[in-house]
Amino acid sequence: EAGVAQSPRYKIIEKRQSVAFWCNPISGHATLYWYQQILGQGPKLLIQFQNNGVVDDSQLPKDRFSAERLKGVDSTLKIQPAKLEDSAVYLCASSLSAGTNTEAFFGQGTRLTVV
Amino acid sequence: AQSVTQPDIHITVSEGASLELRCNYSYGATPYLFWYVQSPGQGLQLLLKYFSGDTLVQGIKGFEAEFKRSQSSFNLRKPSVHWSDAAEYFCAVGRRERGGADGLTFGKGTHLIIQP
């Protein structure tokens, strides 16, 4: 079974530029998550999708971050404009559904460096 | 809101010795609890999870964890560590009202170093 795919693996941009990350979840997984992991910290949930609808985006900085999941499969996370403090690893995860006894499977992440 | 505390930022253990990583959580009800491991440059891999039932949970790679409601703890243990266990370990809590995988809140992690 293929895992969660993310691209690119690494990205370096200057502050105030824009950047986009892509995620392809495990086939059949209805729920998709984006997490931000700053160096030395645990992942923090940014947004959760159930199919193509947003379930939770309470921790997403909506003035600069946006995410979409068209057709309920792939997802993109965008930052515009980027700030230095956005430097982090962005992890995508998916799960079968938002129900009991389900677990989230994580991709390898995209490491973003803002200079 | 829920929270997770991992009191130990770094732990050094000799190869073959036993291991215990501490995790304390704050949540208004019985939570869903998870332990993940992250190797350098890799994503998170689930070691084990607690949803209900037996409070001693067995996971992959010889790990186990025990849920203690009275102490709000979910400590991870392994009787004998291997050099390949060196990694970052994260404890996480999920909100029970939204299901097992929803809205995970992670601790800051414990970096495990294995001495030869």
Based on the model shown, name its key terms.
A: 115 residues; mainly beta; 7-stranded mixed β-sheet; 11 strands; globular; B: 116 residues; 6-stranded mixed β-sheet; 4-stranded antiparallel β-sheet
Helix content of chain B: under 10%
E-strand count of chain B: 12
Biggest sheet character of chain B:
6 strands, mixed
Strand residue content of chain B: over 45%
Overall structural class of chain B, as computed from helix and strand content, comes to mainly beta
Quote the average pLDDT of chain A: 92
Order of helices and strands of chain A: EEEEEEEEEEE
Oligomer: heterodimer
Helix content of chain A: under 10%
* Secondary-structure-derived class of chain A: mainly beta
User: Could you tell me the radius of gyration of chain A in angstroms?
Assistant: 13 Å
Strand fraction of chain A equals over 45%
Describe this structure in words.
The complex is a heterodimer of chains A (115) and B (116). Chain A has 115 residues and is mainly beta. Chain A has strands at residues 5-7, 10-13, 19-24, 31-37, 44-50, 53-56, 65-68, 75-79, 88-95, 105-106, 110-114. In chain A, the strands form two sheets. In chain A, strands 2, 4, 5, 6, 9, 10 and 11 form a seven-stranded mixed beta sheet that branches. In chain A, strands 1-3-8-7 form a four-stranded antiparallel beta sheet, with no helix packed on it. By secondary structure, chain B is mostly beta strands. In chain B, 0% of the residues lie in helices and 50% in strands. Chain B has no helices and twelve strands. The radius of gyration of chain B is 14 Å and the shape is globular. The mean pLDDT of chain B is 91. At the A-B interface, strand 5, strand 9 and strand 10 of A face strand 6 and strand 11 of B.
